[in-house]
Amino acid sequence: MEELNIFNSNEKIVMGGYILTFIHSPFCGTCKVARKMLETIEKTWDKAIFYELNATLHPEFMKQYQIESVPCLLITSGPRVVEKVYAFHSVPYMYKLVSQYVNSAHYFPRNNERI
Questions:
Q1: How many beta carbons lie within 10 A of that of residue 44, not counting itself?
Q2: 17: alpha, beta or left? (left if phi > 0; alpha if psi -120 to 50)
Q3: Considering the entire predicted model, what is its pTM?
Q4: Which of 1, 48, 89, 111 is the most buried (most CB within 10 A)?
């Protein structure tokens, strides 16, 4: 996962295509479990899929995108919010959800990766 910060978060989010951003807090136990799920999905795909953002360091981002709690998987397309996922039920559930975006023609590959 590539960490977003105050300097590149909006730049990355508005690039166009689907961007999948894992929003977390370092003090959140559920966030640690969710991170493990997403890392497992990245290992399955054998590439980095997600960006990550520390919610405690970016309150303006949280307000702008109306993030209600962490963990959250924020899925955007350009500046538009497509989906916010707060319940990370299981790895198979998240894999299926993420696959619909990663397999889409509108997915924005990280670091100019080819799919």
A1: 13
A2: left
A3: 0.84
A4: 1
